[in-house]
Amino acid sequence: FIGYVQGQKENDIRLTVRKRPGDYGVSPLQAIQSTSDHDIYHLDNYDKLADAPLMYGQPDTASIMVGGAQVQIGVYSPNGVIQAAAVRDNIKDLLHAQELYLGGKLPVEKYAFIFYFTDTLGVSGGMGALEHMNSSVYFLPEMPLNEEAVDMLRDVCAHEFFHIVTPLNIHSHEIADFNFIEPHMSEHLWLYEGQTEYAAHHAQVMAG
User: Fold this and answer.
1) In degrees, to the nearest 5, what angle opens at C-alpha 156 toward C-alphas 162 and 53?
2) Packing angle, helices 147-162 and 196-206, rounded to 10
3) How far apart are CA 27 and CA 114, in angstroms?
4) Residue 44 is assigned to a structural domain of this protein
5) What is the mean pLDDT of each run of 10 residues along the chain (208 residues)?
6) One-character DSSP codes across 126-175
7) Spatial separation of the C-alpha atoms in residues 29 and 10, rounded to whole Å
8) What CATH code is carried by the domain that includes residue 127?
9) In a 3-state reduction of DSSP, which class is residue 189?
10) Which domain holds residue 163?
11) Beta strands 33-34 and 13-18: pairing type?
12) Considering its fold, how many domains does the chain have in total?
């Protein structure tokens, strides 16, 4: 956990992650220094840190170029049921459909899909995903990628990936300058979620 210090939100941050030999960090961030036992990241402020998830572990990654952006896929599957390459192969046509929908160019240079598949349900049984500026994080059940599972995966990825447009690049001031102590909610949910869901499906229809 990384704490929030009130009044220090705009300070530069130097984040050092100590890791076991062989571990690899999946993140939208680019390390300014990387060795066998640690990675160092530099961020302009706390907002950038809060918007950049990291997942460290034994590497299972794949990548693909989409609209001029390097798209990285990182997977944690405790029983090895799901591999990053399989995820990539099942969503790559979806990503290229969204690339065309956005005019052939993505508004980011690097994007990370971070998947944590679990074989244990929590007390609430909740699953889901969360968007970030250059990434999205997924907490989903570990199951073979049959037709039903792939359909679910594609639907979730299509929605979260399209958040690179809204609210992450088109948003109100409540999102742009988020108050971590006394949050003020935006009234633009219709845009952030409704338009995103529409575009996620429309892009696939337009691509055939």
Assistant:
1) 70
2) 120
3) 8
4) no
5) 82 95 94 96 93 94 96 97 98 94 90 95 80 93 95 93 76 67 74 80 81
6) --EEEE-SSEEEEEEE-----HHHHHHHHHHHHHHHHTTTTTTTS--HHH
7) 18
8) 1.10.390.10
9) helix
10) 59-206
11) unpaired
12) 1
